[in-house]
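Next comes a single protein record:
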Amino acid sequence: MATLPKPKSRKRALLVVNPKARRGTGSIRAAVEILRASGIDATETAISRDETMADLIRREAESYDLVIVGGGDGTLNAAAPGLVDTGLPLGVLPLGTANDFARTLGIAPDPSQAARIIAAGFQAPIDLGEVNGHLFFNVASIGFSAELAADLTEHAKKRWGKLGYGIAAARILARSQLFSAYLDHDGTTEKIRTLQVSVGNGRHYGGGMTVEETATADDGKLDFYSLEVDHWWRLLALLPSLRKGTHGRWDDVRAFQTTEVTIRTSRPRPVNTDGELSTWTPAHFRIRPKAISVFTPDAEKAK
């Protein structure tokens, strides 16, 4: 008598959705059905008032096989400490305004397509950046981008989407000024005058900008750049290169790769991590290699 194959065991997913995400909770119904049909039971769980998303993941970790986060880059950022502590793999349902991390990994912005990636089951380890103990997926910035994060409200993101970034950026650019900073990295100290310094882990950030054209989230490196421009119109000239990630070729852009860098300023300046203001200078950055596992498109099968 032939032996029947054992039924595939079902997996349990902790589903956490940011209700303030640009596309909200209504758009995930089809995604949940796709997951269920593939053998993944996703249980949506709300965060209580007295806990963070990371707290929720830690609390529920023993009951689940994976975590699925529905939201944008800020929502993923909030989940990062819990994912690192528990070791649970991450599935991404892009529901935010920019979804830069999803774009870095080649995850489609459509939640149903993203659900199919999770259902396929291919996982890959990725790096995280860290600044003063705060983790980030995409990029951390000091200067212009930090001012943009403070100025761009949740209401503006939800109403205007990516256009909101451009409206706020133009307003801030008109009043921005260069500031002095000291960089400690790879055994050297450099003094700079800059409009913005950014330290990237992934490739994309800021609703369409690129940290460096060849950067990946699993290369074990941080990509640093500093915009040392004299006039605001020079930054406008740089914009096409900033979008492509080729700005490091310009004379007034300082760019290098490293695994650790400290940025010091004469007065404390806020640091923007994945669109959220999380800490202040002095800022110590380091790479956290292969910190978490993420469901991603299987590049080999896609060929």
About this structure: The radius of gyration is 20 Å.
